[in-house]
Amino acid sequence: YRDGGLLANEDGFVPPVEDATASQASLRLGYVLSQDTYGASVEIDRRNSSIPIPELPVGRLVETPDEIISVIDAFLATGGIVPTPSTALVTGYDFLDDAATAVQSEFEAGLGSSNPVDSLISAATVAPENAWNADQMRTALLQNGRHDLIFLAGHFSAASALAADYDTRLLASEVAGSSVDMSNSIVFSA
Question: Which parts of the chain have pLDDT scores under 50?
Answer without folding.
Answer: none
